[in-house]
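Justification of resources, computational component.

The compute hours requested in this renewal are based largely on the per-chain cost of generating structure records like the one below. Each record pairs the submitted sequence with a full structure-token output. That output is archived, and it is also reused by downstream analysis tasks.
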Amino acid sequence: MLLNIEQISQPYSGEYEEIIFDIESNWNSSDWSWIRFEEDTTIWCGEFRGKYIGATFSVPKGIIVVVTTDYIYVIDIMSKEMIDSERNFECTDITCTPLGDVLLSSGYGLEILKERTISSCEAIVLPVNADSLRFVKYRGNILEMNCDEYCNWSNNITLFLNCETLCVMES
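The structure output for this chain reads:
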């Protein structure tokens, strides 16, 4: 079972079992990110195209989701194979709720990954026009988020997402 995910610098050759997750495209950057995955009995490393933005995993869904400046990757936990990917133009933050739901933020909006594919993302309605939306911390099943009001950047707002009902409230 997957226990921990950690961004690392490029490992020494042979230090870990390494898996390269690359997608051929003329538009790829020359940047790479490395993530160490700690399981019950093994440690392995994934190499991903693009600068690291975030990563999380959902045991109930059996997936790892990695976000870089180039792509969003969905990896099967058991097989360590990429099951979906999409060019990343907007995702700026990622988290997994205590219930195992993966949440993505574009800075302006909030989405939940309903299944094991990126196309299953559904928007969660926010009570404000958000800018620079970031995930802060969990208090039980409540996720605290912070943002600025769009076009009124001096108005910093704290939002709370109930992870069970997926309702967002302003503080």
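Residues 1-89 form one domain. The chain has a mean pLDDT of 96.
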